[in-house]
Design goal:
Residues 41-286 form the Peptidase S1 domain. The protein folds into 2 domains: 53-155 and 280-287, Thrombin, subunit H (Beta Barrel); 168-274, Trypsin-like serine proteases (Thrombin, subunit H), CATH 2.40.10.10. The chain is globular, with a radius of gyration of 17 Å. By secondary structure, it is mainly beta. The chain has 2 helices and 14 strands, in the order ββββββββββαββββα. A 7-stranded antiparallel β-sheet has the order 2-10-9-12-13-14-11, with no helix packed on it. It has a 6-stranded antiparallel beta barrel with strand order 3-4-5-8-7-6. It has helices at 200-203, 278-285, and strands spanning 11-12, 45-46, 55-60, 67-78, 81-84, 102-106, 121-128, 140-144, 169-173, 189-193, 215-220, 234-239, 242-254, 267-273. It starts with 10 loop residues before the first strand and ends in a 12-residue tail after the last helix. Helices cover 4% and strands 29% of the residues.
Length: 297
């Protein structure tokens, strides 16, 4: 989930796609798959759009669309809107990038290739909620140039309830295969992570007070983590048998500052709590708040 960039590879119209960011994952306790572990990905499981029908891939172009680089993961939140991390669409000085610099592959559990460019959705508008002055508001909504048909992908609903340390939550995205690697997984990965109420959450991020505010904290003591390139991707919990959006992957750091690894063991991670921004998201999309949240049956 961490925002630190690694080496950039380009998706040229005549070539293969690779990445600017990546991430790592871990075995989870969602009991609906029975899928075996794939050791080539750090503590991760291959998953699909049957579990993540809203998954989106954000690509950036700096030359008008001749070449694209993978930027971040995202989630379809409305038929014409994708939610991701705000830092994915801002320069380092927190000025927003032009909407025309981005394209999205939506509803695919396989990392896009050059053959998929023709199916990209263009971004027409980018909406943020105070990220320029408040880093905890690391959330952006991207408006697409056309609606996504239900046969392609279906929007995720927001989890509106209290987030506790006992809530099983899962992250998903396209990740690096090894901590010392820059290679992305070519398939969507998922992993169980844990919610933490530790005082260390505030020690490492003064914007965190508790998990009922704008941020959710996770301390990774067993290697289960999101990592580079996972930024903007979904943190989910199951509700009524469906995965609902609990958070958006933001950033993290190793709690041992002498350790260069920013993912896996002994790291602390932060996710933007989706419910904290649900009313803003509904207003941005011009819909009623009740249509973007998932209530218990």
């Amino acid at each position: 989930m961490h925002a630190a960039p690694i080496s950039t590879f380009l998706l040229a119209l005549s070539g293969m796609v690779s990445a600017k960011y990546g991430f790592s994952y871990s075995e989870d306790d969602f009991r609906d798959s029975g899928m075996r572990m794939y050791t080539k990905v750090i503590n991760g499981k291959i998953t699909g759009t049957n579990y993540y029908p809203f998954i989106s891939q954000l690509f950036r172009t700096d030359d008008g669309g001749s070449n694209f680089s993978f930027e971040c993961t995202g989630s379809l939140i409305g038929s014409q809107y994708v939610v991701t991390a705000a830092h994915c669409v801002h320069y380092s000085d927190r000025t927003i990038m032009p909407a025309k610099a981005f394209g999205l592959m939506i509803g695919s559990a396989e990392l896009a290739t050059a053959d998929d460019v023709q199916d990209f959705y263009n971004v027409t508008d980018i909406y943020v909620d105070g990220y320029r002055t408040e880093s905890a508001n690391d959330i952006a909504i991207l408006k697409l140039d056309r609606e996504v048909l239900p046969t392609v992908a279906t929007p995720v609903k927001i989890y509106p309830y209290q987030v506790t340390s006992s809530l099983p939550v899962e992250v998903a995205g396209f990740g690096i295969t090894k901590l010392d690697s820059t290679d992305l997984s070519q398939e969507l990965m998922r992993a169980l992570v844990s919610v933490s109420n530790s005082t260390q959450c505030e020690d490492f991020n003064s914007s965190w007070d508790n998990n009922s505010g704008p941020l959710i904290c996770s301390i990774n003591e067993n290697g289960n983590d999101s990592c580079k390139g996972d930024s903007g991707g979904p943190l989910v919990a199951k509700l009524n048998g469906e995965r609902t959006l609990v958070g958006i992957t933001s950033w993290g750091v190793n709690m041992d500052f002498t350790n260069p690894s920013q993912c896996g063991n002994n790291t602390i991670s932060y996710y933007v709590r989706a419910a904290n921004f649900a009313k803003w998201a509904a207003s941005t999309m011009g819909v009623d708040y009740t249509t973007v949240i998932q209530l218990k049956d």
